[in-house]
Amino acid sequence: MNTGTTYRKLAIEVMPVTKAEDRKAVEVPLKMVAENLSFFYRQTQALRGINIQIKEKHITALIGPSGCGKSTFLRALNRMNDLIPGTRVEGRVYIDGQDIYAKSVDPILLRRKVGMIFQKSNPFPKSVYENVAYGVRINRYAQSKAELDEIVEKSLQDAALWDEVRDRLDSSALGLSGGQQQRLCIARSLAVKPDTLLMDEPASALDPISTAKIEELILDLKKRYTIIIVTHNMQQAARVSDCTAFFFMGELVEMDSTIKMFTNPSRKETEDYITGRFG
Amino acid sequence: MATSPGMPSRGKWANALIDNEMRRSRDVSGKIFRFLTGAACLVIVSMVALIIGNIFINGRHHLSWRFLTAAPEDGMTGGGIFPAIYGTVLLVILMTLAVVPVGVMVAIYLQEYSSHSSRLYKATRLAVSNLAGVPSIVFGLFGLGFFVKFLGGSIDRLFYGGNLVFGQPAILWAAMTLAVLTLPVVILTTEDTLRSIPNELREASMALGATKFQTIRHIVLPQAVSGILTGGILAVSRGAGEVAPILFTGAAYFLPELPTKLTSQFMELGYHVLVLSTQSPDVEATKPILYSTVFVLLALTFLLNFVAIIIRSQMRARLRTRG
Q1: Which helix (H) or strand (E) holds B108?
Q2: CB < 8 Å to B201, chain A
Q3: Is the pLDDT score of A189 beyond 80?
Q4: How far apart are CA B86 and CA B251, in angstroms?
Q5: Which domains does chain B have, with CATH numbers?
Q6: DSSP code of B116?
Q7: Cross-chain Cβ contact A125/B323 below 8 Å
Q8: Can you give the pLDDT at residue B97?
Q9: pLDDT-derived band of residue A4, with 50, 70 and 90 as boundaries?
Q10: What are phi and psi of B266, to 5 degrees?
């Protein structure tokens, strides 16, 4: 259909780099592997035997209609779901070869390594500085005030926010714009030195300009971090991601390089969803 | 009526929009209801105005610096009420020290730790709502039986060789009894506050590798301070006015000296009002003193409330701007 052509054209236009990278995809080491991962909220099964491989320092987009399990899957990767009573996990998730649901794994340490950005920007009602310093303080990463200052500044720079907030570090984070707040949340995550970032629709509440800034930032962060991003926005998935996984009714329908998924998906459901025929 | 050119003439359907009779009857019942609800508001406003006005008009003659700073004289027909003011303030402070930490901890457990289907959660819920419904005289008797006789008596037997030290009515036990009485207020307000703190903040903190305790300590509690203070305010204004719980647990009829130890007995404003109005040898002679005492009791409660409200609003403003 018409929409389909638009998306395909879009995907091709914005992803020449990805395409080149894709050819040497075989050499990329895996960061995460989920094996037969199922997830239950009390009686309801939200994930059905997910098998997925996430490449290191790549951006993986999770797409699918609301309630398809993509956010649940994302939250299973840093065990945020543990915080919800009445939930149960089956199967395995390996990060750097370690099963993160093994008894010996401390979920607190896991979350330091696997950071998370939420849909609604949720800065603490503290100053800009304190927001970034919080994770550093509780994890005792800084030995001195000078070191803490340095980490805060570096994190804000990495999140492309430093220039906008350098003169207002002591004012409330709630006074920042929505886009700035979201970048502050990213800076806050970066400050605890993760190597993976999980993003749950990080730009869905933002205007187009703020969204563009976030996307630019995500592409920049790819150099150092493995990123998994849940999005409802097909263009966004096409613009930023290297791989795309399509979830439907708690199952992983298809996963492939983004270029392939948006131009020539193997499954009919994927094509229908991407071209907007359902979902 | 002039119709503008091009306007279509009124069709049949338009008649359905106009029914003056129905409109009139609807308007009348609406107005009556509005009047009734407004009148109900007037009732409460006039009651408060009557109480305060009556007490102020009758009590103001006797108010003086001496009245506030002297002890009662001549069988309560003269002198002042300082020991009662002092006793009330001390009682309320001791009560707050006991009730706020315990109440806040209960609320934290209920809201932050327990699963809402656990037995302990359900039992605590039931206990809190039942505690709130117990008549205050029952607390008085409970205080006498549990705190004074059992707890105080045991302490005396264990540490004082059976001599009466803690095993008698005292300001400590009166404060403890009031603390039990006001516990539900603190628990419920703190719980409300904790519930109002967005879960996203807890998740954000946990996602940064914070422990549950760190999240509560650094994210949840700082946000809850003003709500906890509100609970404290409500407990204080509730506790300061209660007479029944302290009747048997520590309040004294007449004491010219101020309480100096936790085991001292004390005078209290509410109890003093009761004494003046029921136990006085000369009711007519104590009447002006009675009015003034009530006035002071009210003023003290309002003042405590006012101070706490100021602290609270400052705390809020500070949180908003700086954090």
Answers
A1: helix B82-108
A2: 122, 124-125
A3: yes
A4: 12
A5: 63-321 (1.10.3720.10)
A6: T
A7: yes
A8: 94
A9: very low
A10: -155, 160
Nearest-by-Cβ selection for B323 from A83, A111, A172: A172
Tokens for A8? 């395909």
Give the ipTM of the model, two decimals please: 0.84
What's the DSSP call for residue B160?
Answer: S
The Cα A170–Cα A128 span in angstroms is 6
User: So what's the pLDDT on residue A2?
Assistant: 44
pLDDT confidence of residue B186: 94
Contacts of A170 in chain B (CB under 8 A): 322
Beta partners for A41? A44, A87
- E strand or H helix that includes residue A55: strand A44-55
φ, ψ of residue A92 to 5 degrees: the values are -130, 145
Check CB contact under 8 Å for B209 and A80.
no
Name every residue whose Cβ is closer than 8 Å to that of residue B262 and which is 6 or more positions away in sequence: B94, B170, B171, B172
**Which is it for the CA torsion B3, B8, B9, B10, positive or negative?**
negative
Q: Find the helix or strand (DSSP H, E) in which B320 lies.
A: helix B283-321
B208 and A171 within 8 Å at the Cβ level: the answer is no
The structural domains of chain A, ordered by start, are 2-121+196-274 (3.40.50.300)
Dihedral angle computed from the Cα positions of residues B79, B83, B89 and B95, in that order, rounded to the nearest 10 degrees: -140
**Distance between CA atoms of B293 and B202, rounded to whole angstroms?**
49
| pLDDT tens per residue across span A5-23 | 444 444 444 444 444 455 4
Q: What is the pLDDT of residues B20-39, one digit of tens each?
A: 777 787 888 889 999 999 99
Place of tokens 């907030």: A165
Which of A227, A186, A228, A226 has its CA nearest to residue A206? A186
pLDDT at B306: 82
Report the C-alpha gap between B175 and A273 in whole angstroms: 67
Label residue A33 exposed, middle or buried (CB < 10 Å: 0-12, 13-18, 19+).
middle
Q: Are B208 and A80 in contact (CB < 8 Å)?
A: no
What is d(CA B174, CA B249) in angstroms, rounded to the nearest whole number?
Answer: 5
pLDDT exceeds cutoff 70 at B292: yes
For residue B319, the model assigns a pLDDT of 58
Average pLDDT, chain A: 88
**Is B258 an interface residue toward A (CB < 8 Å)?**
no
Mutate to test the interface with A, among B205, B208, B218, B225 (most CBs of A within 10 A): B208
Q: What are phi and psi of A226, to 5 degrees?
A: -85, 130
pTM score over 0.90: no
* Residue showing tokens 């001599």: B163
Average pLDDT over residues A200-212: 90
Per-position DSSP letters for B266-317, written without gaps between them: B--HHHHHHHHHHT-S-HHHHHHHHHHHHHHHHHHHHHHHHHHHHHHHHHHH
Give me the pLDDT at residue A205, please. 84
